[in-house]
UniProtKB/TrEMBL annotation:
Keywords: Aminopeptidase, Hydrolase, Metal-binding, Protease, Zinc. This is D-aminopeptidase. The active site is at residue 115. The gene is dppA. Its EC number is 3.4.11.-. It is an enzyme of class 3 (hydrolase). Zn(2+) 1 binds at residues 8, 10.
Length: 274
């Protein structure tokens, strides 16, 4: 079995606010270690379950957070940016399953550090389906026929995953109290849970189907203010829906929609407060 692992940071055990996940903040270096050890728990469990290959994609911010020297020696790590497909870089039809670790709930929903790519995005849609990073990445996996077997993060992330992907295994490492507070497991307990859940997810992989995306999806992103919509609209092929801060793009497939989302959200970050 060939396993793909996408690792974000906000949903990692014990991480609760910006001081944990921003490179310039005081708690970031210790957070990297916890993130790496948590990824290792899944990787080691995967190899114990007879995975022939495990590819790990660092999926947070600058995407060079994982400490490669601490990873299982047989791991293949995708690190750094810019990546054409960001959080799902390297995922293709050769994989038998994917797992999302350290994930968070989508924008405008409760959950620890909930957001969708940038803090200026209120909602993202594929056709009429409201999705976040988890959903978008699962659609790309589905495009290649790859099922998402496990999602790990807080309780709100697990709920989002269960509503989106029937029979997905979830690993809840913390319970959200607010967007910047949680009741959390310790790293050792979380690593034990993740190993157990990884094994269960692989053993029950036949129960999970790929999340198939629409063939010609319409991407819609609702931004927090009109300036962000104006910046996103600079991308050719987009239009601002009248009377809203929502920018629409008609894509030929989910891969084009995904890259359009990356460009639109990157442009939107150029908006200033005044």
């Amino acid at each position: 079995m060939k396993l793909y692992l996408s690792v974000d940071m906000e949903g990692i055990t014990g991480l609760v606010d910006h001081t944990n996940v921003l490179r310039q903040k005081e708690n970031y270096e210790r957070s990297r270690k916890i993130m790496t050890d948590e990824a290792n728990a899944v990787i080691y469990a995967g190899f114990r379950e007879k995975c022939s290959e495990v590819v790990v994609n660092d999926s947070h911010s600058s995407m060079n957070n994982l400490l490669v020297e601490r990873l299982h020696p047989e791991t293949q790590l995708i690190s750094g940016s810019v990546k054409p497909y960001s959080m799902v870089q390297g995922l293709d039809q050769t994989f038998d399953g994917a797992m999302f670790l350290g994930y968070h709930a989508k924008a405008s929903m409760p959950g620890v550090m909930s957001h969708s790519m940038i803090f200026g995005a209120r909602n993202m849609y594929i056709d009429d389906k409201n999705i976040g990073e988890l959903g978008f990445n699962a659609y790309v996996a589905g495009y290649y026929g790859v099922p998402v077997l496990m999602v790990a993060g807080d309780d709100q992330t697990a709920l989002e995953a269960q509503q989106l992907i029937p029979n997905v295994t979830t690993a809840i490492v913390k319970q959200a109290i607010s967007r910047s507070a949680a009741k959390t497991l310790t790293p050792k307990k979380a690593e034990q849970l993740l190993q157990e859940k990884t094994a269960a997810a692989i053993q029950h992989k036949h129960l999970v189907k790929p999340l198939n995306p629409p063939k010609h999806p319409t991407l819609r992103i609702e931004f927090a203010n009109y300036g962000q919509a104006e910046w996103a609209h600079l991308m050719p092929g987009t239009e601002i829906e009248p009377g809203t801060t929502t920018v629409r793009f008609q894509a030929k497939d989910i891969l084009e929609a995904y890259q359009a989302m990356l460009v639109m959200t990157e442009l939107a970050t150029r908006t200033t407060f005044c």
